[in-house]
Design brief:
This protein has 315 residues and is an alpha/beta fold. Helices cover 34% and strands 27% of the residues. The chain folds into 2 domains: 133 residues, UDP-N-acetylmuramoyl-L-alanine:D-glutamate ligase (3-Layer(aba) Sandwich), CATH 3.40.1190; 133 residues, UDP-N-acetylmuramoyl-L-alanine:D-glutamate ligase. The strands form 4 sheets. A 6-stranded parallel sheet has the order 5-4-1-8-9-10, sandwiched between helices. It has a 4-stranded mixed sheet with strand order 3-2-6-7. Helix 2 links the parallel strand 4 and strand 5. Pfam families: PfkB.
Length: 315
Amino acid sequence: MILTVTPNPSLDRTYEVPVLERGEVIRADGERMDPGGKGVNVSRAVAAAGRRTVAVLPLGGAPGALVADLLDAQGIEVAPVPVAGATRSNIALAEADGVLTKINAPGPELSAAEQELLLDAVRAHSADADWIACCGSLPRGLAPSWYADVVMRAHAGGARIALDTSGRALLEALRARPDVVKPNAEELAEAVARPLATVGDALKAAEEVRAMGAGAVLASLGADGQLLVSDTGAWFGSARVSTVRSNVGAGDASLAGFLIAGGTGPEALASAVAHGAAAVQLPGSVMPTPADLDPAAVTVTADIPLDRELTEPVS
């Protein structure tokens, strides 16, 4: 079982529009509603793979109830923590040419009592978990050290932690030594406070993040592939992708694939790359099923192309 923790979940509404024009009335060609948040997406990807997952998340108001219903419909066990504030609703405007404009609400502020209830829920469901995936931004009220507290409590109970967050929350959590962290290129550059122009730059940054406390680093480099750096070695993975439809949730699908495959070594990296590549070829934030995966399109090597320039360098 993979337990996910999403401190700031959302109800995501996506509207398909011909073109976005400021100040005009725009009629949508289509709309969809999905449960959102990085940890929620990891649970959705795990469930799509036919594996058991439990999603711990604070939920409040009508949007929170709808998030719980949508997750339940996808076969995900929900461990809700009731909060006084309403779960945030995010809006995405998808134009016909592929441009996506997102409006993300801040979300409710959690009280001290609600924060403790959230930690209690994680502890109550962690005994059966092979991995605990803590993902996303922290809501108002939670200190940047909150994830570090989760990591320490989880390790005290014998659980393994995968962490996908950024900024100060990531730096604080590294001191607690999470088992694996999953930054993208921008988050990796932010963690080491310098730009990344090549795969070699990303590898060096990942090694530094390990030195800060991460057991392993699974770094998403967008269209260029993924890096896995751990105490047993470093590997680079990439995949052939015919058509990119949406990269929303692709990193979350990658993390799910990594954990499903055991969360360590080149085989887990290959699974991560396969899941991420499948996700970008699906619409919106749809998570891939086993039928969507193409393992033959994936290449994993210890011969890392250090001089390869990143398609989207981070300044």
